[in-house]
Amino acid sequence: MATSIHETVLVGICDGAIDTKKNTSYCTNKIGDKPDLLPIISLQYPICCLCQRGLSHIVQVYCPLAASPYHRTINVFACTNPQCFGKPESWIVLRSQCMDDDIKGRQDNTSTTEPAMSGTDWCDEADDWGMDNEEQVNVAESGVQVPNDSVHEGTDVSSKLQGLCIDGVEDQQSALQPTDVPVFQSFYISVMEETDLDGFHDMGHENELLREYEEREGVIVEEIQSGKAKEEYEKATVKHGDEVFTGFMKKISLCPEQVLRYSWAGSPLFIIKPPSNVNEMVPFCGHCGSPRVFEFQLMPALVSLLGSAVTNSDISLEFGTVLVYTCRNSCWKSGSTVPVEEFIFVQPDPDQKLFK
To answer: What Rg, from alpha-carbon coordinates, does the chain have?
Structure first.
């Protein structure tokens, strides 16, 4: 699917481990840990449709839409049972929303004096995802908007979000995760526009991730960027036998360590050739009947970061890319306390078939 010249793509990158002593909130963009619930939202913890095990939390993305009065968080869950890897029934994506009044009401009920976020404070002046709560307060931020032609005239996604949230509220909600559900180590997610990657230079941990990526995929990123048809590049093409995969490699070559790509109502980046009717496979919203649009996808580099939060535990997850589609109108019933399930499309790692 071709990318519009007007399409803005934001690239999410791991920005360090989250200290277990620090609290996170619904406006923290993160990998792993437990999901943080918006005020008034309650969650019956999701289970795998295939094996009935509890699903582990994979990512949390705070992504309010511009011109919308709602705070908006999306959480993605998956099953860590190897027999369920790559199967869409073992994944679920949930969208939660709430109004400023919901936050203020909750603060009033807990007698806190901490101010709530205002509608203009969300992302209109933000430029990053994910930072420590202490660092969120009084941050000067600059915004990025992704244009679209729906009722919402764009969306802002950020990394250093405005800190006027309810982290300090003693009874702030968090998902009541069953004790037998594996928990992944938690990391912050930071972001940059894909168009800025030309000036991005890997250092330290980023260089290590790049070397691991090249070794795993049998390619040399610099040669792909220069367009040279080297032996390693040819091997990768033959190995997967798929021009779609080659295009995927080229697209992410400037930043192979990206863990997430965000482009509301934009174009997904497939890792293998999708079904010819892939657009028809995305169902309309079950609540308002509106079409769903692509919002973001999880990238292969995320797999290597999904390690257990418990040192003596060994859990993992395998996938190629995971695409999330959400209601174009981001519909929400006033007073609702239950997250809305959206549509998820899973593509396996092309290498997985070599081991079956």
So the answer is: 20
Position of tokens 């965000």? 262
Name the β-bridge partners of 156: 145
Could you tell me which of 223, 326, 222, 225 has the C-alpha nearest to residue 268? 326
- Report the C-alpha gap between 94 and 324 in whole angstroms: 10
DSSP 33: S
Report the C-alpha gap between 185 and 105 in whole angstroms.
33
**DSSP string covering 115-181:** PPPPTTTSSTT---S---HHHHTT------EE--SSSS--EE--SS--S-SSTT-TT--B----TTS
d(CA 157, CA 128): 8
CA angle 255/261/264 to nearest 5° reads: 145
Question: For 264-314, where are the alpha helices, taking DSSP H only?
Answer: 278-281
Distance CA 335, CA 10 (A): 32
Order the strands of the 340-341 sheet from edge to edge. Answer: 340-341, 91-99, 70-78, 56-62, 30-31, 187-193, 10-17, 258-262, 292-298, 321-327, 343-347
Please name every residue paired with 102 in a beta bridge, in sequence order, or none if there are none: none
**What residues does each domain of the chain span?**
10-200+258-355, 201-253
Q: What is the pLDDT along the chain (356 residues), one digit of tens a residue?
A: 334 446 789 999 999 999 988 889 999 999 999 999 998 899 888 999 999 999 999 999 999 998 899 999 999 999 999 999 989 999 999 999 999 887 776 666 654 443 333 333 323 333 444 444 444 333 333 333 333 433 333 444 443 333 223 233 334 455 566 778 999 999 999 988 988 876 555 555 556 666 776 776 666 656 555 555 444 444 444 444 578 999 999 999 989 999 999 999 999 999 999 999 998 999 999 999 999 999 999 999 999 999 999 877 888 999 999 999 999 999 999 889 999 999 999 999 887 654 44
